[in-house]
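Hi V.,

You were right to ask for the full record rather than a summary. Here it is.
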Amino acid sequence: MNSLPFLTRLIAATILARQNKAMIAEISYLRAEIAYLHEQLPVGTHLRFTDRWRKRLARAAAGVGWKRLAEITTIAKATTIRGWHRLMLKGKLGVQRKPTGRPRVSDEIETLVVRMATENPTWGQERIEGELEKLEIRVSPRTIGAILDRHGVKPSPERGTDSTWKRFVTDHMDVLVATDFFTVDVLGWLGKQTYDVLFAKPSPIRRLAPRRSGMRDQAPPVIPGSSRERWPGTLFLSYQEHGCGQDCGQALGARSPAKA
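Predicted structure:
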């Protein structure tokens, strides 16, 4: 009777030894398979895990033990898997966190900000902010600066140095004024006097055609003591009424200057 428990233990030990040997062989094969799969991955590949796989790995790792896990894991760091396990126990693994801070600017607004900055080299962040507010788009100067930096656009002082004269004139056409002057000889009580006449005209820029008769030749003669003696002071308006009403061939494009 005493031999029966011994035989039972011997048989059980033999079965367990065979199972352990088979398990060791299975683990050895699985390790070889994992090593092969690792070699197929490009260098620097960052694996992404779904919540389902995070939970599965966390449960399996808890049975191995965290100290032993640090020695055998190859798919992720032991500290990372342990963090998944803690979140799983708290019921927070897979729970979406609410985003904090301001919402991200849309791609359309980013494209508009970059376009404003590139087409207007002298515009800074605050100027772009003001132009966007006219379109009922509110973006802070700091966000505008981050967008420009992300797209490799230089700050306004550096962008301004790259501007050409053509770009400068195009950007400031609405505030440019064309100016010119000519001289007029007037016979008055003190004798012959020369008047310098300066006139200015907003853009688009128009000039009088060179080497042709102009305002001076089409104006009436000056008679001393008459109201015509004050003619140089109102020359430009007189020219509009007297000359260009009939013949505007003296101006480029045969157009009359705009009335002030």
